[in-house]
Amino acid sequence: MLDHLTFDQLSEEQKYDHFMDRINRDEKIEADDWMPDDYRIALIRLISMHGISEIMGALPEKEWVPKAPTLHRKLAIMAKVQDEMGHGQLLLRVAEDLMKPLGKNRDNIMSDLFTKRLKFHNVFHMASPTWGDAAIIAWLVDGAAIMSQTMMLDTSYGPYGRALKRICQEESFHAKHGESLVLSLAEGTDRQKQMLQDALNRWWDALLMFFGPKSKQETGHTNVDKNIKYKLRTKTNEQLRQEFFTKYIPKIELIGLKVPDKTVRFDEESNTWHYQDPDWNEFKQIVSGNGPKSDDRIRLRQSSYENTEWVREALGHVKTAVV
Amino acid sequence: MSIESNKQELTELIYQLADDDFIHAHRGSEWLGLAPHIEEDVAFSSINQDTMGHATMYYRILSELGEGKADDLSHLRKKEQFRNAIILEEKNGTGEYLDSPNYDWAFTVIRHLFYDVAKKIRLESLKQSSYEPLADAARKMLTEQYYHLLHWKIWFKQLMTSTEEARDRMETAIKRVWKDFGGVLTLGPHAEKMVSAGLIEDEAALRERFIDQIQELFNEVNYSIDNEPLMIRGDGRNGEHTEDLEHALKTLSEVYVSDPQATGW
Ligand SMILES: [Fe+2]
Ligand SMILES: [Fe+2]
Predict the structure, then answer these.
(1) Do A2 and A146 have their domain in common?
(2) What pLDDT does B101 receive?
(3) Same domain assignment for residues A21 and A158
(4) Secondary structure letter of residue A29 according to DSSP
(5) Where residue A92 sits, what CATH number does that domain have?
(6) Which residue of B has its CA nearest to A296?
(7) Closest CA relative to residue B61, chosen from B140, B133, B141
(8) Cellular component terms, GO, for this chain's entry (chain B) (predicted)?
(9) What is the ipTM of this complex?
(10) Looking at the CA of A163, which ligand is closest?
(11) Cross-chain residue pair A310–B163, CB shorter than 8 Å
(12) Which of A257, A255, A147, A273 is nearest to A202 (CA)?
């Protein structure tokens, strides 16, 4: 290990090689460590997108907080949405530290969101019109999120890995909460069952899209390769999607629901699931901020942000007064 | 106190406590995702969950007293059957929680601060209640209540002593909440019997404590108000309510009533 003085004297190229050595030795990179801009920017993109997705993800579920059918469900969904906001907070702090050297902060994250420069997960652009949607979101969207977050637990960036560890612990409660919501409806009246099946039909394509396209062919570009090189992630989009099928298709069928894709089948020979691809053009549209609920949700977040501008201003004043 | 002969004042009191917390937690939770910053969103949500949890405890006590299922009590009663104070049912601002909510943070801070001051006084009195399940519940709630109150006191102080705009907004909010806050401080038409059964101390004593404590908070930020809190829109303890409650109850029970055959959710 080089000491600081000698490290500073290295050329950029040598620094980069040293950095890649660390990555290849599976060392964890910390916030104050030297890192190439390319790595920093990949991290900022990944983590601020993840963080803002948690926060935007609170909105479709928030819709069901007051409407949750019983006192018990009201409490449970409030706790879950709070966790998601907490995840957003944790992640944005990690992103903020990375952005500091670039002279950027949380305000920049918010304004990038409002101008659609900062993207968030496709699933949070979708409508959630019934209580069945709340159940499917908590069960399958959280289930899918757990898979991609678990995959990144071992990420090369230390602060992100630690945030993910805490997030994954809480997510396991969300999955249980989701399963409990789904089971109650699946064991319920015909109407409740139908509500659940309708929600699954609505969410299926979005769930497949959640993992991202297989390769560049589908959408023209992907950051997966770079993220794998830097060991930010360890699996490809398709690997995760296949794991999702393996875990959830049997469960979906077991509780009497139908997967809304007649072509879906497991091929023993190639050991893979065959399925109908979602419309990747639509995916591109959705994540660019042209999904069914994109504008509504961004507007909701923006107007609430603007309405409380005076509060943040007052708090800024309190802080400087204390100093 | 005997449950048999004091049943009416006992249940009336618990409905007041339950409905106050229920509707107050609902109004708080409408802020979810919309608070001034993310850290506050998380903290505020904890408070709302505690408060909803308190409402649940009260509804369960009512249920044990033979009033019906806790979920039915919270989701099926008509507006006129609710006993919460009117100020607590008021919307956070114009708009809906999903559609252009124009929520007023100053109003929220003041309403929560005043409510939590009053609630803590009420809980302390309930610790000595002649009805043991109520005294027991009050003891459990008080630890949480301490943190809630602290939270709103900090907000109050910060916003009252920062920018001119914040001060203006806060003063406007104080006047607005004050006009109806009397509704929280009253025990309603059965007050005397509640007191003589030893369920809670009398209204005047509780009210005096409230005024003293608020006065103290006002003094710290150089603010004063001449008159006493009023109840200009009516007495919620008597089943008098506004459209805002009607609307909220419709939202709160939308799913629960959507399938009358359903036995579980
Ligand atoms: Fe999350
Ligand atoms: Fe989650």
Answers:
(1) no
(2) 87
(3) no
(4) B
(5) 1.20.1260.10
(6) B99
(7) B133
(8) cytosol
(9) 0.96
(10) 1
(11) yes
(12) A257
Residue type, A18: H
CB atoms within 10 A of CB A38: 12
Query: Nearest by CB to B45, which of A82, A299, A314?
Result: A82
Instruction: State the smallest CA–CA distance between residue A180 and chain B in angstroms.
Output: 9
Residues of A in contact with B51 (CB under 8 A): none
Mean pLDDT of A265-288: 96
Q: Are residues A17 and A46 in the same domain?
A: no
Cβ contact, residue pair B159, A314, below 8 Å: yes
Could you give the count of Cα atoms lying within 13 Å of A263 in the half-sphere of its Cβ?
Answer: 5
Closest-CA distance, B91 to chain A, in angstroms, reads 14
For A76-88, the pLDDT digits (tens) are 999 999 999 999 9
- What is the distance in A from the centroid of ligand 1 to the CA of A43? 18
Which stretches of chain B score pLDDT less than 70? none
Report the number of distinct structural domains present in chain A. Answer: 2
A302 plus A167 within the same structural domain: yes
Residue B14's CB: how many other CB atoms inside 10 A? Answer: 24
Lowest mean pLDDT among A54-63, A313-322, B2-11: A313-322
Ligand nearest to the CA of A87: 1
Q: Is A21 in the same domain as A98?
A: no
User: Residue holding tokens 């691809």?
Assistant: A277
Residue B25's H or E segment, with its range, is: helix B3-29
**Domain containing B234 — which CATH number?**
1.20.1260.10
Amino acid letter, A266: F
In a 3-state reduction of DSSP, which class is residue A202? helix
* Residue B96 CB partners (closer than 8 Å, separation 6+): none
CB contact under 8 A, B259 and A191: yes
Q: Which residues of A touch B42 (CB under 8 A)?
A: 82, 85-86, 89
Residue B264 within any structural domain of the chain: no
* pTM, entire model: 0.95
Q: Which residue of B has its CA nearest to A83?
A: B42
User: What residues in B contact A317, CB-CB < 8 Å?
Assistant: 162-163, 166
- Structure tokens belonging to residue A133: 């949607």
- B38-64 helix and B3-29 helix, angle to the nearest 10 degrees: 160
Backbone angles phi, psi at B176, to 5 degrees: -65, -45
Query: Do strands A272-274 and B93-94 pair parallel, antiparallel, or not at all (unpaired)?
Result: unpaired
Which chain A residue has the Cα nearest residue B39?
A89
The domain in which residue A8 lies consists of 1-34
Q: Are residues A148 and A290 in the same domain?
A: yes
